[in-house]
Amino acid sequence: MRSMMAKFPYGGPRNRWTAYKTEHANDWVQLDFPNPVNVGRMEICLWGDNGGVHAPKSFQIQYWDGVQWANVHERSRNPQQPTLFMSNEVTIDPVQTIRLRLTFIHDPRGPSGLTEWMVWKK
Question: What is the pTM for the complete model shown?
Fold first, then answer.
């Protein structure tokens, strides 16, 4: 059984986060949970307009280990390359945490956008 823990609501351009007009090569979004959660899979829906906002060159997922940020160990990623307007599914070695961070390494053509981030136990 799957249980959703956190989500950015999908609803088109109104419900999104973007790094539009950023001057940074990468930017991040963070989820904070009130209690520790077990995480084993994520679905990340990227938003872009192929004008000012593009799919990221790549993205990295980290979790708070109680002391510092640590990279998750990815088991699989589908699709391999970040793709707009679809579920980018990442399966990881399970972790328990109170925080997740998603860091976007922006495409040189423009910064990244996010419309939905679903976090699952398995």
Answer: 0.86
Over the stretch 60-77, which tens digit does the pLDDT of each residue have?
999 999 999 999 999 999
Domain ranges of the chain: 4-120
Residue of 97, 121, 104, 111 whose CA lies nearest to 31: 97
Structure tokens at 77: 């990623």
CATH number of 4-120: 2.60.120.260
How big is the chain by its Cα radius of gyration, in Å? 14
Chain mean position to CA 114: 7
Q: What whole-number distance in Å separates Cα of residue 23 and Cα of residue 110?
A: 10
